[in-house]
Amino acid sequence: MTWRLLFIWVVLVLTTNVQAAEPIEIGVSLGLTGTYSRPAKMQERGYRLWETHINRRGGLLGRPVRVVIRDDKSDSAEAIKIYRDLIAKRRVHLVFGPYSSEISEAVAPVLEDSGYPTVLPGAAADRIWQNGYTNVFGLFTPASKYALEMLRLAVLYDLRRIAIVYADDAFSVEVAKGAKKWAHLANREVVLFEGFEKGTHDLHYLAIKTRQARADLLVTAGHFDESVDMRRALKAEGWYPRAYFATIGPTLQRYGEVVKQDAELTFAPSLWEPDESLEFTGSRKFIRAFLRDYGILPSYHAANAYAAGQVIEEVVTNANSLDRKKIRQALYKLDTTVAIGRYQVDRFGVPVKHRPLIIQWLDGKKEIVWPEEHRTAQPVFR
Predict the structure, then answer these.
(1) With contact defined as beta carbons under 8 Å apart, do 73 and 66 qualify?
(2) What are the tens digits of pLDDT across the range 65-85?
(3) What is the pTM of this model?
(4) What are the beta bridge partners of residue 193?
(5) How many Å apart are CA 94 and CA 104, to the nearest integer?
């Protein structure tokens, strides 16, 4: 038998054995409809891609992996029902966390009571980890540090007067509080700090206040709609600060499609970008596979889901078991690099090694402008 035939035979045997084994089920609730549908659908694709890749490699512990995805309609109460059903009735082996800090915070008690150690690839609000939970593990930079790298740029480029506006959801409030803290530590003057009810679309009054405060940098803490609504408000006011920085929205390609040429110069924190120059474990392979399978570039939301799969793959392999106590301990001990960068948590499950990027829309596309070692373009200020 030639080496080529032997290789094919071995692959067929391994594949047959994996397919014959009982699948390992990992459940997750995502807001595939409702407020969070855009990033949640990206995460769904990230999970599916990881599921495909891990099964091609022989699965976990010699068994195929099945990711069971349910739509929580971007609603916390619905997500709680789904996780209770996945854990108590379907008895999935493991779960991933839902999308958004708000929904993750709502389901955290369910995960804690059931003893399911869970990676949260869609949550960053600091207060989730301030309740003594032992089963929730962050994957990326906490919300309170989302504006930290932009404040470093503010110091470097002499942006002295900072306006901060924010939606009243858990994630956005944490981003805003963190931005205020870092601004003061950087000796910047916070000239406006004001929240608004989530779902408010007319933000023109905040654009007026920002202009009257003569802000150099405007930080908008929110999700997709808030980033778009604030940009439109600035246009309606006929004014633009030296720098406009918004969370979540500008990292999505759709931001440019919606606001078109007005996307130009927008800054945003990104947990990862689909740039092949980023030499994180599996990142380049993920980008190419995602583009091939879905015909679009992935956002960091998709990469987060894929990275969560990589983390689970590593801890289950290290533990050589599906015992959730062993997996919990492995998650605390793990120090590794996945598709979005470094994973390591402290004793509370808070990420301590991941560093976000700062992107800016320049000439109709997103460029990485910070940190310097990953820069694809120089930042531009008005």
Answers:
(1) no
(2) 999 999 999 999 999 999 999
(3) 0.85
(4) 164
(5) 16
